[in-house]
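Folded chain entry —
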Amino acid sequence: MRILIVDDHDIIRRGLKQLLTARSGWEICGEAKTGREAVALAEQLRPEIVILDISMPDLNGLEAARRIHKLLPKTGILILTLHFSDQLVRDIVEAGARAYIMKSDADRDLVSAVEALANHRTFFTPRAAEMLLNGFSRESSGAEPQALPRDRLTSREREIVQLLAEGKSSKEVAVALGISVKTAETHRANIMRKLELHSVSEVVRYAVKNQIIEA
């Protein structure tokens, strides 16, 4: 089984590799440090499993998961994170990931999570599974969840939020994404309006709060 590991910290990738390569037949086919690298490598290598950190530079793990899932719908995606929240679990599932573990539990849960994905099953912590079941129960009863502002952002807008929060100017955003400066500025204005933000510092706070970037 071929596995792609994505994390911007070398020491964490080494630790994950050590845990995974102890299993017979499991191969680390590639490593990436950013979400954008992850998408390119996944398309090139077509691994059975992708293990993604959430907080990464250039393109965060959730956005990378969305793109990989669209490119390779049969590839199992496992999200690693330092944090837990109900909304984060919803975002992870919406992005196409079917397994989610805390980094602090990786030594205990990683192998089991990868085995679950390999057998076309999901793997969530008990608290996350309970939250998802409760959410499905509310949906089946006809209750409509209230849409959050970020749910109204497009994939490109979420990508630009990360770049702005990382301190990039409209010109730098345009170069990074291969778009015109005018288009980048239009996206920026739309993001500010949708999120009801008025400064870059507010964008940074929003990005940290929603784990788009690390604090």
